[in-house]
Amino acid sequence: MSRKKSEKIINKNGIRVDGRKLDELRPVKLEVGVLGNADGSAYIEQGKNKILAAVYGPHEVHPKHLALPDRALIRCRYHMAPFSVEERKHPAPSRREIELSKVVREALEPSVFVEYYPRTSIDVFTEVLQADGGTRCASITVASLALADAGIPMRDLVVACAAGKVDGHLVLDLTDIEDKNDEADVPVALMPNFNAITLLQMDGELASNEFEKVVNMALDGCKQLYTLQKEALKSKYVAVKEEVEE
Amino acid sequence: MSSVMVARIKQKRIAELISKEMRLDGRGIKDYREVNLEMGVVERAEGSARVRLGKTEVMVGTKIEVGEPFSDVPDQGVLTVNAELVPLASPTFEPGPPDENSIELARVIDRGIRWSKAIALEELCAVPGKKAFIVFVDVYVLNHDGNLIDASALASLAALLNTKMRKYEVKDGEVELKSGYTQLPVRNHPVAVTFAKINDKLVVDPSLEEEQIMDARLTITTGKDGKICAIQKGGYGYFTKEQIFEAAKIAEEKAEQLRKLVVKD
């Protein structure tokens, strides 16, 4: 990070290093049902982020004492591949990954009818293959699709997106370089049909009026992504339908 | 972490009271429990403080060591926050390496201190790229009765304000400590305010029983200028946008009141 303070990440016309406008998402590619063994799986590319998600379950809990008598236990692992970042990341879970596994789980759980499957576990794995900022949000977006693909009854999909403040501008969907030079970063997860915010974090410094703008911006991003999420889920079944009809 | 059981009848009572904006312990839903603060409770530590928030009790000690700065910020000191949920503090705390709850606690405190620029880290570098001071903030939970985040954040701030550094000289690229102390440069005063959502109402400073039945938790940390510097949502429920913005307003007011207990001007 030899970048000097004087360099700007956003030029005077409000165009970002990757050519995006301030309130523009990165290009997103979503695919559902990409892994053979998993009960449900999905893949996301959001800019340079590449993340795989797999869901196993509901199945018997190991170790057994963790089983909950009245609902399913959701376990979640957010993990980054050693080669996913500039400098090799040690494969053991870092403190950051342990925290993110927790917040990703808490973001997804409100959407799942956990009470339908007492004494079982639903295991959600997300592997970040390449990281470029906003991986926790992309992990939630893709993990929710994998849960849906596993056929687990859900109230809604969960979709997540970050917004923040860079060079004094409020921006949507920060990349890694923007994130490292930002004044604030606010990841938000949303269940769109309930207007329910299931993840909210922030680091940075924002006055309360700016904070409200940033949250609204992130929610708009979530709504755009939600459309793509639904399309991805449908397109898998359109493909299946065509196969059956042939 | 396994949880302490709250009887159904009590759960119902707590929820009923909260829907009438009342609480089991007689507080209003926006009231903190009594806060008791002591500073300088451990002489060996460079700085220390103990906060009692009702029956919740947290001790924070700071230590300062000479070490290497991070390569991406070679001209700054280092801040490290760790939290221990000590087994003596609750039947649900177990010995062993930090679990996700203690890691989350430490990282939320860390974000508040770091992003409010509470410590002037740029003044803690002795030899750029080679020698810098590392500020260790160790949060020690001694009794768990809910809202560990706010108690820990307050105790951490108090401990930092109480922290003394040895005077030093740089000779041939080495740091030599001298006699005498200076105050750790503290520039901002981040204070965390935590809400529990119970019966669709925001409840400030949840007790342990309230935490057991809450749908979700929201912590908002603000600096002395009223700017928000850290947020963390927790728990298996959700918040609406309106609730979040309401919480941000309340957090600013409550933080100002709490700050006055620690920062005497």
Walk me through this protein's architecture:
The complex is a heterodimer of chains A (246) and B (265). Chain A has 246 residues and is an alpha+beta fold. Chain A has one domain: 2-Layer Sandwich (Ribosomal Protein S5, domain 2). In chain A, 29% of the residues lie in helices and 30% in strands. Chain A is built from four helices and nine strands, in the order ββββαβαββαββα. Chain A has a five-stranded mixed β-sheet with strand order 1-2-3-5-4. Chain A has a four-stranded antiparallel β-sheet with strand order 7-6-8-9. In chain A, strand 8 and strand 9 form a beta hairpin. The longest helix of chain A is centred in the last third of the chain and has 38 residues. Chain A is globular and about 55 Å long. The N terminus of chain A is likely disordered. Chain B is α+β, with helices and mostly antiparallel strands and 265 residues long. Chain B has a single domain, classed as Ribosomal Protein S5, domain 2 (2-Layer Sandwich). Helices cover 26% and strands 35% of the residues of chain B. In chain B, the strands form three sheets. In chain B, strands 1, 2, 3, 4, 5 and 6 form a six-stranded mixed β-sheet that branches. The longest helix of chain B is centred in the last third of the chain and has 22 residues. In chain B, 46% of the residues are buried. The model of chain B has no long low-confidence stretch (mean pLDDT 95). At the A-B interface, helix 1, strand 8, strand 9 and helix 4 of A face helix 2, strand 12 and helix 5 of B.
Topology record:
The complex is a heterodimer of chains A (246) and B (265).
Chain A: E1 28-32, E2 40-46, E3 49-60, E4 73-80, H1 95-108, E5 120-130, H2 135-149, E6 159-166, E7 169-172, H3 176-180, E8 184-191, E9 196-206, H4 208-245
Parallel strand pairs in A: 4-5
Antiparallel strand pairs in A: 1-2, 2-3, 3-5, 6-7, 6-8, 8-9
Chain B: H1 8-19, E1 35-39, E2 47-53, E3 56-67, E4 78-85, H2 100-115, E5 125-127, E6 131-143, H3 148-161, E7 164-171, E8 174-183, E9 191-198, E10 201-204, H4 208-213, E11 216-222, E12 228-234, H5 241-262
Parallel strand pairs in B: 4-6
Antiparallel strand pairs in B: 1-2, 2-3, 3-6, 5-6, 7-8, 9-10, 9-11, 11-12
